[in-house]
Amino acid sequence: MTRALLVRLGALGDIVHAIPVAAALRRAFPAARIDWLVSAKHRAILDLVPVIDRRLVIDDRGEGTGGTSLLEVVREVRRSRYDVALDLQGLLKSALLARISGATRVIGFTARHLRERLARPFYTDVYDPGGGGIYDARDTRHVVELNLGLLAPLGVSAATPEFPIDRIDSEAARQMAEGTGGRYALLNPGAAWPNKRWPPARLGAVAVALRERHGLMSVALWGPGERALAEDVVSHAGGAAVLSPQTTIADVVALARGAAVLVSGDTGPMHLGAAVGTPIVGIYGPTRPERNGPWAPGDVTISRSSVCQCHHLRRCKLDSMCLLDVQVEEVLGAVERRLAAESSRV
Predict the structure, then answer these.
(1) What is the chain's pLDDT, residue by residue, as a tens digit (346 residues)?
(2) Residues near 181 by Cβ (< 8 Å), separated by ≥ 6?
(3) Which helix (H) or strand (E) holds 55?
(4) Among 166, 170, 164, which residue's Cα sits nearest to residue 254?
(5) Are the C-beta atoms of 147 and 292 separated by less than 8 Å?
(6) Distances, alpha carbon 272 to alpha carbons 37, 129, 159, in Å
(7) Coil, strand or helix: which one is 241?
(8) 89: Cβ–Cβ under 8 A, 6 or more apart, which residues?
(9) Edge-to-edge strand order for the sheet containing 184-188?
(10) Which stretches of 53-142 are DSSP H helices?
(11) Would strands 33-39 and 217-220 be described as parallel, antiparallel, or unpaired?
């Protein structure tokens, strides 16, 4: 195998969960060219992944975010004459893009493990992870493990996932380290799905307790459209939290690397933190931590997935979302356990 194309257009956390596939391919085929087809909105994280040769960036939403048109991307991938294309997204669109690349082999999951079963006819080879399917609550395997299984048709296996992500100098991370005395907790109130957001006022209360118990200041992180959420955390923290500056993805990685602990719902910054080894406390509702949670042995998750009635829905269909049942003391207990585990490891 000399040329491979990975297709995972988004979102941020899902791309992070697919990076070990690129790393495993690079180990198995050191001289191969490995390209990645990604949405323009999410290419920034791949700029930090050194095992990828080319990022083929598509403006698939017509947002003018720096990618090229669908037609131009199709022309480029067809010129590349790939030996294999792997569809890590499982959508009709991603499967079609993998197939029209002209790759000799197009590998994807079996139909019951696809988000859109109509993608299945576009594959020449399929990997069957077993189990009841993509949303089977009985399946305790992490999505990173499932993604790596997609390499089985190529005879490649990886016992331990690798996340090769470059270190960069970040002015935002430097400012936050200086403003907090060099040690801080990173609190992330945002998420694309509203029902993944734990209330900012409760994160503010966590910040207060961390300062009182550990002398630990907190940094409230925010992304596009989330500044008000982070400001709400700070307003409820009584001086125990500061607002992060506007950040790039590279800044978020650097901030996560410097954090004593990261508290967040199931969203991209949490998965970035987990990928670079940040101690994590994750708060889960409509998704399962077994499948989408952090993976370090010491990381801690609080989950209401077993009682959630809105699994894999972007918005809660009830009057009160399940995350509101998670109280401040429960999260503080999880943070205490995670900090203790990290202290014992050092």
Answers:
(1) 999 999 999 999 999 999 999 999 999 999 999 999 999 999 999 999 999 999 999 987 665 557 788 889 989 999 999 999 999 999 999 999 999 999 999 999 999 999 999 999 999 999 999 998 887 888 889 999 999 999 999 999 988 999 999 999 999 999 999 999 999 999 999 999 999 999 999 999 999 999 999 999 999 999 999 999 999 999 999 999 999 999 999 999 999 999 999 999 999 999 999 999 999 999 999 999 999 999 898 999 999 999 998 988 989 988 789 999 999 999 999 999 999 998 765 4
(2) 217
(3) strand 54-58
(4) 170
(5) no
(6) 19, 25, 20
(7) strand
(8) 7, 8, 9, 14, 95, 115
(9) 241-243, 217-220, 184-188, 259-265, 280-284, 300-303
(10) 70-80, 92-100
(11) unpaired
Asked if residues 270 and 294 have their Cβ atoms less than 8 Å apart, the reply is yes
Interatomic CA distance for residues 341 and 332, integer angstroms: 14
Spatial distance between the Cα atoms of 189 and 231, rounded to a whole number of angstroms: 10
Task: Tell me how crowded residue 309 is: count the other CB atoms within 10 A of its CB.
Answer: 11
Amino acid at 256: A
Can you give the three-state secondary structure of 262-321, one letter per residue?
A: EEEECCHHHHHHHHCCCCEEEEECCCCHHHHCCCCCCCEEEECCCCCCCCCCCCCCCCCC
H or E element at residue 19: helix 12-28
